[in-house]
Amino acid sequence: MTTESPRRDDRSVPSRRKGPLELRRRQALQGTSDQHLLDTHGAGRFVHTDPWRVMRIQSEFVEGFGALAELGPAISIFGSARTLPGSGYYETAVEIGRLLAREGVAVITGGGPGSMEAANRGAVDGSGTSVGLGIELPFETGFNPWVDLGVNFRYFFARKTMFVKYAHGFVVLPGGLGTLDELFEAMVLVQTGKVTSFPIVLVGTRFWGPMVHWLRNTLLTEGMISAEDMDLIQITDTAEDAVELVLAGFRRDNQERRGGMFGSAEEDEEEEVWSPEKADGE
244 near 215, Cβ under 8 Å? Predict the structure, then answer.
């Protein structure tokens, strides 16, 4: 003969709610959130905890969105911080920034020296909007003097989101690991459909040629990428061509988003497609 174990009366089990949580037994014996907040004294160790970091990360997104939401058409320009003033790459970046500004397009850079400074300088010379998205680094130098709107970030991933979210394309000058990081991330976002087709223009065939050769003759040959992935980037040597290519890609993508699955003819009538000619008249 067997007997059932007596059922425990749920009312005898300590329990309480803590925000959205239901806590029972030993978990219920913890102090309340208000107790932890008001009874904690001494060193501010809490500012180094993960929940506090989440709040800081959230604040970076809020500040970035608030600062850039009304920026208008923009292109992000990347390149080495080590590019020397007066060099060919520097002068090319200045001209790209100037030409974009004259087309009514804002210029976004990392806000540092080198090619970033050059592009911001060109934007100012062209009477355009010059934006710098800085990052906290052990060797940071602050914003270059040509940044008119600067937003500084603690976290790379928050900063990267702003580069993509508020730009309509990338122009990439010769650079190092940071430049390569931004380039390949943009390519992956387009390849995987995380962003709709996004023009990416590389400047400097001599510099980028070996990398493109490796992509085509190693990754593609080994089946690591598809043939159409090679179309994610375009290469040129002049500032004029770079601006023409990135703006042509932007206009094409802008129109595609308003047709097919992205819109309708009625929506096209209500919302005008941006163009440099319209920007000049504003």
Answer: no
